[in-house]
Structures are given as structure tokens and as C-alpha cells.
Fold Mechanosensitive ion channel.
Amino acid sequence: MAVQGTATPTPAANDTGEGLLELFTVLQRSLDQLVATQGRLVATLILLVVLLLSVVIVPAALSRLRSVTSDRAGDWLQVMADYTPTTIRGVFLRIAQFSMVVLVVVSFLIVWGVLDIVQTVGPYLDGSDQSVLATIQTIVLVMLAFVLSDQMQRWIGRFSQAVTGFTEHQEEILLRLGQVTVFVTIGATIFAVWGIDLSGLLVGAGFLGIVVGLAARQTLGSLIAGFVLMFSRPFTIGDWVLIGEQEGIVTDITVFNTRLENFDGEFVIIPNDRVSDRAVTNRSRKGLLRLTVDIGVDYDTDVDRAMDLAREAMTDIEHVVDSPTPDVVPKDFGDSAVVMELRFWIDHPTPPRKWRAISAVVRGVKATFDEEDIAIPFPQRTLSNRVDAADEKSLEGGVEMRPDGDG
């Protein structure tokens, strides 16, 4: 589908072209008058001095003045410098220096009679040919797009530092959306500068969007789910999570998938649309994780005393936090023991910290029970021969003693 258009002159463009043409006319007349009164050599020397001042001496003097005044003026000048966009300052400085160099070179050509600026640029600026002006406007718009993109990155960085809980992925997605908005807007403006009609292109893009949406609905579903995950934040990079049947540490979150590293060192990639429709357990979000260990004591043991000893043993373990305090709860009557559940908490939960804490609790409680002669029984069975009284009498009466011999 072809998009046709021509750079149609607009009243604003005509006014700009006429203003530039008038400026060039004044420049040429002034230089002709300077040559007539002072001569070409003097005019050339003046232009060299202007070039040296504008490109070398004035920037160096301004830099020196800024460094001197910043030492004397206090912190307010530094604050103003921090909030002044560095990129915009640099762009305008380079544009000014480049424009001055071009102006001096053109002036040299006019002074020595090589160029008639009015006759050269007149056809392009009087409204008959707008391509030069449209090209200049396009260059300025492209530079503006990159400057805005750079400044947007700075603003979003400051915003993320000021807002609590703003993650790097939210910062990245906000930056990408902003950059797309800026470049699409600048692109549409450039098309308007060149007089290109976008109506046909938009209709074709609409049909193409429908076809692509039907063909890649799963990918688009993952993309939309990725945006939802980034802003709802059920987990962040470094969290210990359980997604469906997959458990591990989150290593990356993209707009299409979530990546985990499980405890076997394997990397698991889960599409975001599958993450969003499964239960997600985040073991790191609160910063605390409760662990449990079952232990059994003999039926002849004082259960309350065993519970107190187990609490004291867990309190002395460095891997277990003091608040919430450890607790012991009688849980069940086992085959060989009264089963108690040891409950304790760890901070900054990770799989290594979990297993270190469990190992320390098991060793600590076992050592305490050994010191206090509290038995932790192993599975055992009690066997007994149960015979009813009637059966026993019948067995006794039915026994006949037969002597050896015939009979």
C-alpha cells in the first residue's frame, strides 16, 4: 500500500522562509558594505576574529566564569545546575557553535565574491521549493526526540528514587512506554511537515493488527500479563517463589516470561500468561518465614517439661529469630511417641538459611533431650498372647495324657 504526499507549503512555513531570506539579504548587504569601506583583507580578518571568539574564547571564558562563580555563590548555583538539563545545554551549545562556523564560512564566500547567498537560497525559501526547510525541520525534530528521550530517562530515575517500592522493571517499562510515545509523536509530526497523508497507512495498519493479533494471541497474552506482573508486583528479582509446581529464585522478569533458578541449578522459563493463572507463593515478601519440625517423645515423658526444654533450645540457636518467639505444640499421638511440632521463624528467607536453621534446631533439641534423659523413641511394637477364659478351660479339659503302651 503506497502512501503518497507532497510537502505542501503552509503559511507558517512561508513566513519562516521569508524571514530567513530577509536575514540572508541583510547579511549580504552588510558584508558588501564592509568590503566596500574596509576591503576584503580587513573583512576577512574581522571574520577570523569572530570565528575565534565564538568557537574558542567565549566558551572557555564562560566555563571559567562558571567555575569561579560556583565557588563564591554557594549551593544555590549548584542546585540550578543540577536541575538544568545537561543534554539540552550541550545540544544548544553545539548547535550555536556549528551555526557560527557555517555563518562565518558563508560570509567568507560572500566577501570574496564566490557566493551570492540571496540568489542561491532564494528559490528554496520564497515558497516555491520547501524541501530545504522541511529537511531542516526534520533534523531539528529528530534531535528534539533524542533530547526528550534522554531527559525522560533522567526524570524517571529521579522519580523512582523518590517513590518507595518502585522497582527497576517498573522504571524500565515506564521509560520504554515514554520513549515509544515520544518517537511516535515526533514521527507523526515529521510526516505532517512533509505533507504525507497517513490515513491509508492507518487503515492498513488496523487490518494488519487484527491479523497479527489472531496469529499471535498467546504471545500477546504473555505480553499483557507481563505488564500486569510488572505493575502488580507479586514478586521481584531475587525472591524465593513457588509458581504452580515450580519453585526457585526469580532471576529475571521480562514482558514475555519469568525466569527461575531452582535448587538443582536449573533455569526454568515460565510464560507470563501461565504465571498469572497459577497460585504464586512468595516466601521472601514478608522478610520472615516460619518453619516446622516434628519430634516425638516417649509416652512416659512429662510432655510439658519436654515442651519447655525444646523452646529453650530453639531460643539459643542463632539462626532462629527472637520475634516471633519459637513455640512448641503437641500435635498427635503416634504409634510409639507423643508427636510435638516445633515452630520457629527465620529472617531473610532463602533455601540455604532454611536448611541451616532446621539442621541447627534438630541438633540443638536432640542435645538438650539427651542431657535431660528425655527419650526420643524409635518405632516399636508390643506383642501379647490374648486367650479367652472359656477357651483356656476347654483347652485344659481336653488334654489327655496317654501312657506309653498298647491301648
Notes: The radius of gyration is 43 Å. Residues 37 and 43 are 9 Å apart (CA to CA). Strands lie at 240-243, 246-253, 257-261, 267-271, 280-282, 288-297, 327-333, 338-347. The domain at 221-282 is CATH 2.30.30.60 (SH3 type barrels.).
